[in-house]
Structure formats: C-alpha cells, structure tokens
Amino acid sequence: MKPGTLDRRVTILRRALTRNEHGEQVETYSELTTVWAQRLDVTAREAFTAQTTIAEGTAKFRMRYRSDLIYTDRLSCESKEYDIVQIAELGRREATEIVGVARIP
Q: pLDDT, tens digit, for every residue of 7-18?
C-alpha cells in the first residue's frame, strides 16, 4: 500500500454499553484510534456485481492492516459517521478494506 494514497484521517469508534441514571442500557461510542486511510466511493457497478442495493453515502476505506476491527465499530471521517458492513483483508496482511454506510442523523 502506497503511503501517498492514505490521504484521509479516519477515527475508529468502539461501541460500549453503559447504564444511565435510570438503570437503562445506553449505547455509546468512544475513540479507539485515528489512522490514515484512503476513501473510495462505491460505484453502482460494484453494488450490482455484488447483488446488493447501494445506499447513499456508501464508501470503502483502505488502511494499513488491522486485526482489531469488529462489525460493531464505526468510522468517522470528515464529520460523517459510517456503520461498518464489511471488513476484508487485502493481500497477506498488507491492508484492510472496510465498506461503510453513512449514518443518517
């Protein structure tokens, strides 16, 4: 992976379940780490090939290989948060590719 292509700062957010003052379970996200990544928009052709529907705000993020990502994590990039829908290893631990769908506020 060429370092020059990693031109976006992406924050990985980890989900945590806590309880509020009423004893109700509340889902919160805290910052796990911030990394450099490449952001690629998912094209309609890719979605058709994968036989899935494309949602507005779907993007791929490529970053150096990480083994600690899970599907309940979120990505934050340029004031948008993305739910992770796919995590893939590229090469032999060369990079990680994440497909995310932008969260609607």
A: 999 999 999 998
Residue the block writes with tokens 């340029």: 78
Query: Are the beta carbons of 38 and 7 closer than 8 angstroms?
Result: yes
Angle subtended at Cα 69 by Cα 93 and Cα 74, rounded to the nearest 5 degrees: 135
CA atoms within 13 A on the CB side of 82: 24
**DSSP 8-state code for residue 16:** E
pLDDT band for 102, please (50, 70, 90 cuts).
Answer: confident
Tokens representing 58 are: 């779907």
Q: 71, 67, 68, 65: which is closest to 100 by C-alpha? A: 71
DSSP SS3 for 5: helix
Residues forming a β-bridge with 61: 39, 98
Q: Quote the pTM value.
A: 0.79
For every residue of 47-58, DSSP letters joined together read HHHTT-PPPTTE
Average pLDDT over residues 52-66: 79
